Amino acid sequence: MTPSHETSACSTPFDLLIRGGTVIDPSVNKSTRADVGVVDGRIAAVAPDLAGQATEVVHADGAYVVPGLVDFHVHVYWGATVWGLEADKIGAAGGSTAFLDTGSAGAITLAGLRRYVIEPASTRIRALVNICTAGLVTTLGELRDPRYLDIDGTVRAIDANRDIAPGVKIRYSENIVGAGAQARAALDAAVEAAEQAGVWLMVHIGYTPEAIPDVLDRLRPGDVVTHSYTPLEGGLVDLDARGVLPAVMEARAAGIEFDIGHGKSSFGWETAQTALDSGFPPDYVSSDLHRGCVHGPAFSLPNVMTKFWFLGMPLEEIVARCTLAPARKLGLDAGTLRVGAEADIAVVAVDEGPVTLVDCTGVQRTWDRELRAAHTFRAGVRLDPDVLGPSEELPVQLSSQPMTRDADA
Ligand SMILES: [Zn+2]
Question: Which CATH number does the domain housing residue 259 bear?
Answer without folding.
Answer: 3.20.20.140
